[in-house]
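User: Okay, second chain of the day. Same drill as before: sequence in, C-alpha cells out.
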Amino acid sequence: MVEIIPSILSADMARLAEAIETVKAGGATRIHVDVMDGHFVPNITIGPPVISSIRRATDLLLDVHLMIEEPDRFIPEFVRAGADLLSVHQETTTHLDRSLQLIRSSGAEAGVAINPATPVETLTTVLEIVDFVLVMTVNPGFGGQKFIPYTLGKVRQLVRIRRENNLAFRIEVDGGLTLENVGEAVRAGAELIVAGSSVYHSGDPRQAVEQMRKASNEATLSRI
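Assistant: Same drill. C-alpha cells below.
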C-alpha cells in the first residue's frame, strides 16, 4: 500500500500539534521529520527535544530522517526521543552496516538514504538488512525544491533488485513530490511518498493528503 507522509519541515513550527492532527484527519499514518545539522546539508532544523515534544503530541509513526554527519553519535538519542523509523545517509558514514545495526538495536526500523547523484550500487551489500530505502528526489537541505526526474530511475532499479533477490525493503521518495507527479513516482515503484510544501503550503493540508492518496491509489492500479 502506498502511503503519503507529510513532512513537518514545511509546517508552521509554532503550531506543530495542530499541523499534525490536520494531516492525520486526511489519512496520514506517519509524519516525516527532517533533522539537519548545517554541515552535511546547508540548513539547521531540530533535535531530540523537539522529537520528544512531537511524540507526546501524536500517536502517528515518526519517520525521522537524519541529514547529519557522524549519525552514530546520535542514533540512540533520537530513538529514545520517539523515532519509530530512522534513516541515515549512505554519504555520512563510513560504517553503514554498523549504523543500520545500531538503529535496529536501539529499537527503530532502519532506513538508508541516498542523494540524487549517489548510485544505488553503493547500497547492494546492506539491502538485506534495511527496512526501507529513501531515495532523495531533490538535493537535501531545503523544502520547496523542484523534483529531479532522473531519480526515478533509481527507484526502478531498486524495485528490480528487490524482486530478483527476494528482498522486503520498502522504497521511499522525498523531495518535490506534488499532486502532478506523485502518480509517476508510484508507477516507478515508490511506496512511501514524503510531501512537505505540496501539503502544508496548499491552503488545505487535509485535502492535499486526501488528493495525493487518491492519485497514488489510482497510479498503483497502472504501476509498471
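Strands lie at 3-6, 30-36, 61-67, 85-89, 109-114, 132-136, 170-174, 192-195.

User: Thanks, on to the next one.
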